[in-house]
Amino acid sequence: MVKLNNIRWYFLFAVCCVAGCSGGQKKNEFTYYRAIHNRDTAYLSIHIGGGDFYGKYGLVKGWEVPVVGDIMGEIRTDTLVGTFSYTPYQHRHKKRVAFALLQRDNQLLLGGGAETSYMGIPHYAPGTLYFDDTGFVFEQVEKPLIFE
What we know:
Layout (H helix, E strand, L loop, with lengths): L1 H22 L7 E7 L2 E10 L2 E10 L5 E10 L2 E8 L8 E10 L2 E4 L4 E4 L2 E4 L12 E5 L7
Antiparallel strand pairs: 1-2, 1-10, 2-3, 3-4, 4-5, 5-6, 6-7, 7-10, 8-9
């Protein structure tokens, strides 16, 4: 009788472990975008939630080596403002630059402007952020190979 009780407890423990491990898996929470401007292609893998965003950004200029790095920041109404951290080709240290996107319908527009730095954190100077001349308009796509 004691052995049967122990087997029941082990079985119950195993079922709980399997159910606990498989129940917490999330679906793909990232949305993928692509923008093409002349010979340049930019890719975006982004999660937008709450008051912030994070993800990956990749830029392929013509036939050059792609630059891929991390983006993160906060959401201000319809504008996503943050930083892009990447390691330039054949460099050791990461570089961090200002990054901005404008949400318009189902598209994201890449922003530009005069970049300044305060306490080591890059951002765009007040009143200099623009979205019309960058040429990169992101449209939603399936997961691109650059993020595999």
